[in-house]
């Protein structure tokens, strides 16, 4: 048998990789990862003194098998505690 008669090639496998849309980093917050592949879990956190509009400091999102995130989130906004930390106290004396 002639060795030139046989061609060997590596096995080729096509894999479809699905992902969710990229998540934007919230103002005054951050993401636990930039990955968005199906079944990726991402924690969206607010910096200290900030909260999401629904009152929580972090939310956990899952990229579903349908390539959509299972929840939404807002930008982080300052809390009353954060406002009080930087307030200027003005004393007014009434005569």
Structural class: mainly beta
Domain unit count: 1
Strand order of the largest sheet: 1-2-4
Q: Shape from CA axes?
A: elongated
Question: CATH superfamily, please?
Answer: Complement Module, domain 1
Which stretches of 5+ consecutive residues score pLDDT under 50? 82-92
Percent in strands: 15-25%
- Report the helical percentage: under 10%
Rg calculated over all Cα atoms? 26 Å
Q: Report the span from N to C terminus.
A: 114 Å
The tally of beta strands, per DSSP, is 5
The main β sheet shows up as: 3 strands, antiparallel
CATH A-level architecture: Ribbon
What is the CATH class name?
Answer: Mainly Beta
The run of helices and strands is EEEEEH
The CATH topology name reads Complement Module, domain 1
Mean of pLDDT: 81
Please give the count of helices. 1
Describe the structure.
The chain is mostly beta strands and 95 residues long. The chain has a single domain (15-95), classed as Complement Module, domain 1, CATH 2.10.70. It contains one helix and five strands; from the N terminus they run E-E-E-E-E-H. The strands form two sheets. The protein has a three-stranded antiparallel β-sheet, with no helix packed on it. Strands 3-5 form a two-stranded antiparallel sheet. It is elongated and about 60 Å long. The termini are far apart.
